[in-house]
Batch of 4 targets.
Target 1
Amino acid sequence: MSAPFAKLQQIDLRFYQLLNKVELLLYINPINAEKERQKFYKSGYSIDPVFRYPKCTLNLRAIRKELFKLEMQKIENEAIAELYEQLRWYFSGILDCVEHVGKKELFLRSSLKTFGAPSALDLQRAHALIKASKSKINLTSSQRLHTTEEALEYMNSFVNQYGFNVTVKSATHMSSKAMVSNSKKSVILKRGEHFSALELEALANHEIGVHLVTTFNAENQRLKIFSLGFPFNVQTQEGLAVLAEYYSGALNFDRIFELAVRVVLADNVIKGQSFAASFDQLVGEYKLSRDHAFKLVTRLYRGGGFTKDRLYLPGFIELIQQHPNDETMNWLLAGKTASDYQHMMPILEQQGLMNPNTYQSTTFNSAKPLNKEVAQLLQRLV
């Protein structure tokens, strides 16, 4: 990096040293979900689960103290200095979330600060998508044929197409079927699950074709902010990952329905609706199986109200509406970037602070046909 940006380099590296191990998803998954599921069923679905979580051994107070010592005003470019100031406040919210996991009201407040609440438009679209897709989900649900072990083989094969040096493994305590750990360079699948062929394709394009592509592109960038994540990057990154499912032809009505339900559940959490009441809504009104309903409600209620999951749908819709061109797509895949900060990319490029992408997502360069019915639904409602 050129000498004129010595202070930026120093602050950027310090940010990374302080925050690169602060990975919220490692602390938010209940470690007693199965036991609490059985207790909840035995109670006649009336007594809300009491979840326990992995203990965080990081010294969050010391991290926060050091974070607020950083002198952003000394960064050599005013626009970049403002970006890092906003980054500090964003990660302050992430630290709040980690600190307050399991402390209901405190965690929910931290989650709302960091991931926000559904807007009226988000809820309107979610309800419309639920209504339009509810009658279709049984038609598109294929039998779950592949075990976790078979899914691991599939994911390994997909990873090898890119040549990423990552571990593909399974774990027990997860609220989702699959996730990527950036800090541990791992693709993790939930143990004991079953996956359809279409679901595996969707998960591979989502987790590997986007989340790992951005992870490894970020490693080759000149600034660590691309690895840590731009402020409020989750909506863009998860929206991009769902867009990859869509372009791979693997986004079906089941998935659209689930993403819309998450928005409704986030609203329930914020309004103080109980776990049991939300579960009853999914089983009674939406006709989901009790196991499916329990998993979905757990995702949104874990920690005390994890509103992050409401971002997937608006993030996807935002990108569908944008129709990103090749240049924009390159910026989005450069690391953990955010649509709100696209205006910063030309600035970083002009200052010699941004490198070309090392990896491209094969999903967006493929000519696979879209799910026509899903495409038509999105055209009508978005």
Target 2
Amino acid sequence: MTVKTTIRFLLYLVLIGLTLPFLLGYLNMLHPLFDSFSHFRIHLLLGILPLLLLIAFFHEKVIAFVYLLLVGVGAFYLYTITQPFKLESVDHNKTHLLKHLQFNLSFRNRRMEDFKSYLKEHKPDVVTLQEVTPAHQKELKKLMGSPFAFDLSTSFPYVSKERGEYPYQIYCNFQAVGGVAILSKHPFNEEKSICMEGQGLVSAQISVNHQAINIVSIHTYWPYPYDQPQQIETIKEIFHHIKPPTLIAGDFNAVAWSHSVKEIEKASHTKVVNGLRWTISLEEQVPLIPNFKLPIDQVLVSKELEVRKIFVEKSLGSDHFPVVSEIWF
């Protein structure tokens, strides 16, 4: 076996090792392992394309041309799936703005003062959170305002309770890393609140400009070898009781094109907001690959709501990054 043949053989082995999970990721409805593969579609493609280019140089012109053609097709596909958010249209009948912040706090987060300062400065109307520990909850409740503080006014009844930045808060236990939560500047309809304890879902209905909007904070497991499929099957049923308009946000541990996210879309009559957003840094988990990230925090909205702006914010002490969206209704 010549050196050239040996190199080509080794390149093919690596190519097969990358291409097999890449292709199986498109069969993610068949098994949760394949759904896990689909999360790395972009990363696998970034490995496959250079390999195809290298292999092309080890073949005659006709076969080399086929490989170069595959590189071109793959590069175009990579370009399409890595596009940022695009505003598709503007409905001028929607005149009310709801600012939303989605954030997995991380149970290790020790920068709560920075996070609270961010909320006070940027003033999102509603906040969906995951991995909220009892210590986090204690800090966040300070944003509700003091029960002993009052505002004076010149009109009857002249005295009213002082409201904090986020007087309306709801929490729901999930697992050891912390629960899910919703903070709001707008009042909750208590009768419509739902806590699926141990299932990673909390829902609250808020009223904004006399419009009722259902807000859902969600945290799911990783697909395989964990219990995300069973969890999805359980929480899907709750959407029979949560009617649009609906905003769902959370750490899905799943990319937008995953089977799990598609199942939530169908059950809730929502769509994930378009565009690629790298929302978690895996530097600790994958130290040998610099700047390794995944787009696993999602925002889904029903057709009554229109997202006109969405972006990933700076780090606030978590391995996840906050996702900010401006939603019109």
Target 3
Amino acid sequence: MPSKAVVLFSGGLDSSTVVAIALKEGFEVHALSFDYGQRHKIELERACQTASLLGATQHKVICADLRQFGGSALTDSIDVPKGREEKEMAEGIPITYVPARNTIFLSFALAYAEVLSAYDIFVGVNAVDYSGYPDCRPEFISAFEDLANLATKAGLAGNKRIRIHAPLIHWSKSQIIQKGVELGVDYGLTHSCYAPTDSGLACGACDSCILRLKGFKDAGLKDPVAYASE
């Protein structure tokens, strides 16, 4: 019987690849998505549409409205930066950073894993082609894993260590895409844009779109999703 794993699943390119990786490694995937008041809620629609297609055994959506705090262009009335150069993206923490988002999401995933008697949690954070988010760094993942084993009944029991898997953390976007294609991920079903049009088209100009498009170009592939600028 396969071991269970909780996979944080946004419906985007990275998390879809992580679902495929977890399945390839033989885990029974329990996908966990969040309706956190994000302006690009279409990613959640994609997650709901594709979880079972990717092969998840179960998919849950948690409501945790971070608009109550704001402080991010994704959850507040703040413009999403567009047209930035890669050098600009690497300088400082951008306004699209959602305060403590990955800490919050991983905490929910940890609680869910305990209920499932799962000792493995997968997350699609990336420390190479990313926009400077502090909660996408290896140090954060390592620290959270230590916390998980200190703060839970499962961790204290000592039968098995809780592991936080971040398989994409040292990969470039092109490497992520190549792995996903190898595993049969349909990237045409994913959504990455921070500022989609009312009809759901990707803007092509926000940091996330720029990094995604560069990833496909570097991989020698065409991005299958539609862009407003096309």
Target 4
Amino acid sequence: MQSKERTYKIEEAFLSPYACKSVCTKGRQREETPCSMRTDFQRDRDRIIYSKAFRRLKNKTQVFFSPDGDHYITRLTHTFDVSQIARSIARALSLNEDLTEAIALGHDLGHTPCGHVGERVLDALCPEGFRHNAQSLRVVDLLEKDGKGLNLTYEVRDGILNHTSSGKPQTLEGVAVSLADRIAYINHDIEDAIRGGFLREEELPAGPIAVLGRDTSERINTAITDIVTNSEGKNQLTMSEEKGRASVELRKFMFERVYIRANKVMQDRAERMITAMYDYFVRHTDKMPALYRGVAEREGAGRAVCDYISSMTDRYAIGVFEDLFVPKNFAMDGRG
């Protein structure tokens, strides 16, 4: 028996009746020959891991633009955090871990350089707006593999698009990733804010901390345990009213205290840099790589420039900006 067939039998025997079983996938946008060894969700996970967009996540910071220090959270480490938390929830509730992992690994592929500010700036500049969840879907559908896309399954694409707090994933695995994303970024962004000197631990709101826990590990464990306890045997994933309210309060605190007000100098720098590059490439689409020049011809300059800039790592964005706008040093020729 092929390993894929064994997986189907194991899922049928042990997964929750509310789980999305691999054999029940709605399929891909384009028909293709199935893998004899891996389920479609396992194959999606592998395609995401080996994509260029996934590798670039290691040089995109989560909150602070191109920070000094090796221990700040990057989009890649955040993605691994989300995957681990979501898989813990899925395992405890007998959901499909392969689907959960694929969604988690792909959920931030479309995120911008320069942390949260990058998304805000592109949203203001792009004529149709910019949302990183929609861009992540665009990456896997249209931009990866030199414009061919990854041709992922419907369920993984749905989870990627709907992982934000306003989204409504159609699988419980997608909901697990959405919850895990919020759990991960709030708690690890607290660590980065303290590490960067923008926040002191004693400044954290006392009420939510008393409910959720004093440190990152305790807060994450509290959230996972609460979700599992309140979701067992149900066709939904939810937190208790107390823990849910505390999580919302902590998230609100972080937006007001860190995401908007802190790191202002670096945020202003990132805004100027992205705005200048956007204006330049809209007027000079021929200076972009071939993939994005093709997008400009089909969908317009604004859309193509958003695709290009959002694909950049922090380091690459700084390099492009300096090449375009910073005068080069020149060597003296030795004459008088």
